[in-house]
């Protein structure tokens, strides 16, 4: 079992409030977030961006380990993730996480690549955590 932690602080309330996010590792240290960073494109981060980063990283790592288990030890994986936040009644809900994988893996068939990527999408811990539609576009160079 592994555990990780992060913290968030928010001063003021609603649209006028300002927050900061920090992680145990220090990768994020008092990173600003709030209404402006979430809905108005202001500098800083927001929860959905952090979810997208976590999902892209988790899926890519799961794919990498599955490829290694299948005997592939050379190649490149690049994943983009777009998380969609939609209105849900009086609040909001994450409704989609769209993964897009571009890979270069010498010696793998299209079928094996697709099977490994699809399995990673279904079984990476962040995919399992999310309560939304998860999609995957994949392309194999060469």
Rounded radius of gyration (Å): 18 Å
**Count of β-strands:** 6
Beta-strand fraction estimate: 35-45%
* Main sheet characteristics: 3 strands, antiparallel
What sort of overall outline do the alpha carbons produce when their principal axes are compared? elongated
- Class from helix and strand fractions: alpha+beta
Number of helices: 4
Q: What CATH architecture of the largest domain would you give?
A: 2-Layer Sandwich
Binned, the helix content reads 25-40%
Q: What is the topology, as strand order, of the major beta sheet?
A: 1-2-3
Mean pLDDT: 96
Distance between the termini: 38 Å
SSE run = EEEHHEEHHE
CATH fold name of the largest domain: GMP Synthetase, Chain A, domain 3
Under CATH at level 1, the class of the largest domain stands as: Alpha Beta
Protein name: OsmC-like protein
GO molecular function, one term: peroxidase activity
Organism: Novosphingobium pentaromativorans US6-1
Pfam families: OsmC (PF02566)
């Amino acid at each position: 079992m592994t555990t990780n932690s992060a913290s968030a602080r928010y001063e003021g309330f609603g649209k006028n409030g300002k927050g900061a996010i920090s992680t145990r590792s220090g990768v994020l240290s008092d990173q600003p977030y709030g209404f402006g960073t979430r809905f108005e494109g202001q500098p800083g981060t927001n929860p959905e961006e952090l979810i997208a980063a976590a999902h892209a990283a988790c899926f890519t790592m799961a794919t990498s380990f599955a490829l290694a288990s299948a005997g592939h030890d050379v190649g490149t994986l690049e994943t983009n993730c777009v998380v969609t936040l939609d209105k849900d009644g009086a609040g909001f809900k994450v409704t989609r996480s769209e993964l897009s994988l571009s890979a270069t893996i010498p010696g793998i068939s299209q079928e094996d690549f697709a099977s490994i990527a699809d399995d990673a999408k279904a079984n990476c811990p962040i995919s399992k955590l999310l309560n939304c539609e998860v999609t995957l576009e994949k392309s194999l160079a060469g």
